[in-house]
Design a protein that fits this description.
Layout lengths: L1 E6 L2 E6 H6 L24 E7 L8 H4 L5 H9 L1 E7 L5 H10 L3 H4 L15 H7 L3 E5 L17 E3 L3 E2 L5 E2 L2 H13 L9 E7 L17 H21 L7 E7 L19 H4 E7 L7 E2 L9 H8 L15 H4 L9 E5 L1 H6 L4 E6 L2 E5 L4 E4 L15 H15 L12 H9 L23 H15 L3 H14 L4 H13 L3 H14 L4 H13 L3 H14 L4 H13 L3 H14 L4 H13 L3 H15 L7 H10 L3 H8 L9 H14 L3 H14 L4 H5 L10
Parallel strand pairs: 3-9, 3-10, 4-12, 5-6, 5-9
Antiparallel strand pairs: 1-2, 4-11, 7-8, 10-11, 13-14, 14-15, 15-16
Helix pairs in contact: 7-8, 15-16, 16-17, 17-18, 17-19, 18-19, 19-20, 20-21, 21-22, 22-23, 23-24, 24-25, 25-26, 25-27, 26-27, 27-28
């Protein structure tokens, strides 16, 4: 039986049973499975994990009946499907960290986008690689780039993104599919190791701009167009897998999308079901019978279930997730309740964070004004029963205490001892402030929806590069809340982008006082201070930024520049060396480092980085053969130098000197004709070298 509810112009369709029984800790009987997960799978089962960003279940045909998503619908029809699984957080990075570790965000430490997953807990990629799997990931949105730590365990982590409107970094589903298929095609034959492939699609995330012919005339249609486009690309991925061994495919989402429900347009602000309920499918032909369950599967259960189906040892440590294997096998299984949170209201805006427990068909949201919902009779979460159901609320509060008593780790750069060692060598003395626990008395996000929508409006103007107009909207929030850190930070960034760094710094400094651990604010502030010539201050903020983002290459490069401007050449070199180590394929960094090392009197180090750059590009494409040849010559490596000097090109600043020195080497080798030609090339570019050549005993006989 289906039910229908309208919020404004948005029509929501889901199965009533799914809405009622999400995360019930009661026994749920599934349809019989064709083969018990207790039986060993094929010895070389491949694993495909597909995560679709910002995917509501009712955007899929198999859940809502329409619109049609034929590829995902077929996968669900052939697999074991949960139409209403639960995400632990309405934010991309924390939720994906939970999928890959089996830990909730408060335990693995990643509470918002932009934080760094530390060296623990273990990840699914690490575990499968230890058991012989080739591992690869292809992500499509900036919150999942490698510097944030989710690349742990992947042999290949592809996060090559394009900058779109407003500097937004993402790539389309088609581009991601192409990259994943190229990796699959590169697999060795005839007996490659099994692979674990994670493919992440970002397209349904706002703003909704589906390619033609997808999309429609309103916001909901545009969103569904993005989902339809991803569905097509998942079909292309699966059609071209050409796997000769069994494939366990898992499809899910990190979170949903509000689309206006509860006053929220997108996600991250509230933890109502519009953003917390997601689809989940396990597709394993020959091992799982097609079936559907309204049991409360959670995203923290994904990794334990995959390992159980593969008959591999579980992830180490005290997980929050459990294997759903018994349920998938048709057995009775009690599924634990779900712990949900969003820290974004606190970390970004200075308002109270939100936590929730979903258990026994009830949901308790811990907020300054608590909320309790009977999901069976009120799936839209519109009637707060906290005053009428005090006993029920107390029982769920006890569940809160049990969940929050479990040990946790901390994210951020403090888990990167190498970065801290390097920072200490650069003179870093910062305290390393991290966001602590929120104080009492903070505003309830429910009471700040108006301000939040204003901030969203301002950020849209920023993305459209209407910076002056954005500042006007930010100021409306600051009139009501002068210390709102998000409004201060982002209006400061808008002022800086509009060419007003002096005004920007005033706001950014205030923002840093309230949110010292916000790396985005640090980055803009350091850049604005540099523009104003306040280099010493800028350096301190670049140092703090690389502590917060130890794998952010551009931060280390900017730090190196700032240190160099301050006359700290050795420290600048060390910072740039670390940047080059972080991005070994960045030939521009290798070349820049080589020039600086030569200037610092370290020719051997310069040659090493020149040669690494040349190895990366190939000798014919290397842009600085003259410089490499001349430094090799300085080290007395004449034969190696001659080969590079012969590749020198007229567009290089060192070209004339390179050809001059090549002519000298050729005279020494007895090749006078070649020496004459190369000296002529040098003189054509730099005629002033003639008097030097005429006085040079090596060249005086070949000067025309």
């Amino acid at each position: 039986m289906k039910w229908y509810r309208r919020t404004g112009t948005i029509q929501w369709k889901v199965f009533l049973t799914a809405a009622v029984t999400v995360c019930l800790p009661v026994a749920v009987k599934a349809l019989p499975a064709a083969q018990s997960p207790g039986q060993p799978p094929s010895p070389s089962t491949n694993v495909l994990l597909i995560t679709v960003d910002t995917l509501r279940p009712d955007a899929l045909g198999w859940v809502a009946g329409e619109p049609s998503t034929p590829v995902i619908d077929r996968l669900a029809a052939e697999g074991f499907r949960f139409p209403a699984a639960v995400s632990p957080a309405p934010v991309t990075q924390p939720s994906h960290a939970s999928i890959l570790t089996g830990w909730i965000p408060r335990r693995h430490g990643v509470r918002d986008n932009g934080q760094v997953l530390g060296s623990s807990p273990a990840t699914l990629g690490e575990h499968l690689r230890q058991h012989g799997y080739r591992t690869a990931a292809f992500v499509s949105g900036y919150p999942l780039v490698a510097e944030f730590g989710l690349d742990r365990g992947f042999d290949h982590y592809d996060d090559r993104l394009d900058s779109g409107s407003g500097g937004r970094l993402e790539r389309t589903a088609g581009e991601t599919t192409d990259a994943a298929l190229a990796w699959l095609a590169s697999a060795p034959t005839p007996t490659p190791a099994p692979w674990f492939l994670w493919v992440h699609y970002y397209d349904p995330h706002d703003p909704y701009v589906p390619p033609k012919p997808f999309g429609g005339s309103d916001l909901r249609a545009a969103y569904e167009g993005e989902v339809a486009y991803v569905d097509q690309e998942i079909g292309r991925l699966r059609d071209q897998l050409r796997s000769t061994v069994p494939v366990l495919t898992v499809l899910t989402a990190d979170h949903g999308e509000s689309l206006g429900e509860h006053g929220e347009q997108t996600h991250g602000f509230f933890i109502y079901d519009s953003t917390q309920v997601v689809p989940l499918v396990f597709h394993y032909p020959g091992h799982l019978e097609p079936a559907e369950s309204a049991a409360g599967a959670r995203l923290v259960d994904v990794a334990p279930t995959i390992l159980d189906l593969l008959r591999l040892p579980p992830l180490p440590g005290e997980l929050d997730g459990v294997s759903l294997g018994p349920l998938l096998a048709g057995e009775t299984q009690t599924v634990p309740g779900a712990y949900l949170e969003t820290r974004r209201p606190w970390l970004s805006y200075g308002w109270a964070p939100l936590r929730a427990i979903r258990e026994g068909g009830w949901k308790l949201i811990a907020a300054p004004t608590p909320e309790l919902y009977d999901l069976a009779n009120d799936p839209s979460e519109s009637v707060n029963l906290v005053q009428r159901e005090r006993r029920r609320a107390r029982e769920l509060q006890a569940t809160f205490r049990r969940a929050e008593a479990r040990p946790a780790v901390h994210a951020h750069s403090l888990a990167d001892p190498d970065a801290m060692t390097r920072l200490a060598a650069l003179g870093y003395t910062g305290a390393g402030a991290e966001p602590g626990e929120p104080p009492p008395g903070l505003a309830d996000p429910k009471d700040r929806v108006e301000q939040w929508n204003l901030l969203s409006e301002a950020m849209l103007l920023v993305e459209q590069e209407q910076h002056a107009a954005a500042v006007i909207v930010f100021d409306k929030v600051l009139e009501q809340e002068p210390e709102n850190p998000f409004a201060l930070s982002r209006s400061g960034a808008a002022l800086n982008a509009a060419g007003q760094p002096k005004d920007a710094v005033v706001r950014l400094l205030r923002a840093v006082e309230f949110t010292p651990g916000d790396p985005e604010t640090r980055s803009v502030l350091a850049g604005a201070l540099s523009r104003l010539g306040r280099n010493a201050e800028a350096t301190e903020h670049w140092l703090e930024l690389v502590r917060l983002r130890p794998r952010k290459v551009s931060a280390w490069v900017n730090l190196a520049t700032s240190l160099g401007r301050g006359g700290k050449s050795d420290e600048a070199l060390r910072a740039l060396e670390h940047a080059a180590d972080l991005a070994p394929d960045r030939t521009d960094l290798r070349v820049r480092l080589a020039f600086l090392q030569h200037a610092a009197g370290r020719p051997a180090d310069a040659v090493r980085h020149f040669e690494l750059a040349a190895e990366s590009t190939g000798p014919d494409a290397f842009p600085h053969p003259s410089a490499l040849g001349l430094v090799l010559l300085q080290l007395g490596r004449g034969d190696a130098a001659a080969a590079w000097l012969a590749r020198s090109r007229p567009d290089e600043g060192e070209y004339a000197e390179a050809r001059y020195q090549l002519a000298r080497l050729q005279v020494q080798a007895g090749d006078l004709e070649s020496a004459r030609k190369n000296l002529g090339r040098a003189l054509n570019v730099a005629p002033e070298l003639r008097s030097r050549a005429e006085a040079d005993p090596e060249l005086e006989h070949v000067v025309d």
